[in-house]
Amino acid sequence: MDDAKLPTVGVLGGTGPQGRGLGLRLALAGYEVVLGSRSPERAGDAARGLCAEHGVDGALLTGGGNHEAAARDIVIVAVPFDGVRPLLEPLGDMLAGSIVISCVNRMGFDREGPYPIPVAEGSATELIAELAPAARVFGAFHNVPAGRLTRDLGPLDMDVLVTGDDIHPDVRHLVESVEGVRAVPAGPLRLSRPLEELTAVIIAVNRHYKVTSGVRLTGLPDSA
Amino acid sequence: MDDAKLPTVGVLGGTGPQGRGLGLRLALAGYEVVLGSRSPERAGDAARGLCAEHGVDGALLTGGGNHEAAARDIVIVAVPFDGVRPLLEPLGDMLAGSIVISCVNRMGFDREGPYPIPVAEGSATELIAELAPAARVFGAFHNVPAGRLTRDLGPLDMDVLVTGDDIHPDVRHLVESVEGVRAVPAGPLRLSRPLEELTAVIIAVNRHYKVTSGVRLTGLPDSA
Rounded to two decimals, what is the model's pTM? Predict the structure, then answer.
């Protein structure tokens, strides 16, 4: 794909750890990214901070309001679960025809560690698909630790399992623009729940070993 | 661990594909295994068939009734989900003090492929823990494809994520006696659901690529 024709990217919840990390990685890969936030000022600060810290071209990573982020070709939803409905109910129609990628996980933490919280719609990804019915919705990046995206810019050595009917070439390209990541089609949206909930398992493993682990599938063809 | 002191193993639902496959692998690793079934005759036939086909010592892999399998040191539950309650309600008390390993997944299949079916107790593993309250219950082997256990006896190249409080050394030894498998402690039993439901994702990926894939976690210490 010619970089000049890369789709533009908006990140809803772009000032959170996952949003900032994905925005940074995608800008480093040449995407023009706007981090969206309720506070455009805070989003601008976050973008300028990442650019300064990691030597990113300030034209590729900017901040703005969530409406501005939602107007991009590809919209990544990286808000906490409780923010999904209030954010997308007013924005849903704007997303008609857009590619929307959910990396939302609904999780709780207590003395025994992280645990998944069930979502009435099946998964956060399916909730987003309900709220943006004319968008092309995919689930991805659930298990990619936010901290790992900004702490060390080396390759990640993990797969991103993507749910949604027929992984869109633009989604595959975006996912694989993060160095060291392979996009693996993981079935229809209804299979999002296990992948969202798996995040709690990954965090439990990370706490046990004091590492940042990722998921790889073995046995796939080399061309996968 | 001295092989002479290996705990004995029983497999409930030992004539199903997962039960037969695990029984075979464990007998090949030196465990004395009894495949349990409602029909001891069928279990005996399954055991003799596996021994003849794969050159296993007939003393290490035998068949018997489910009661006989439930009397072993380590009991693997490999029945279909709908069989768990009818099987374990009468057997639960027998399992007091035993190690019980659940590899049960509750899944459905339709035109769109495999999908997880929610379990009221959270997961099949937690249901088993309720039915055998004095057993030490673990979840494991959920994502290991049954066919792969018997079709090709080479090493598996996959991790087995084990749920349960503090993975028991006997459980780790048993899991890792399957060549190519690393046991990874994956948190308390309440994290079993994502791992059980992940099986539907693995099967969807396998169908897409026409392969038999497995899960590996990257980024763990070499000693894991």
Answer: 0.94
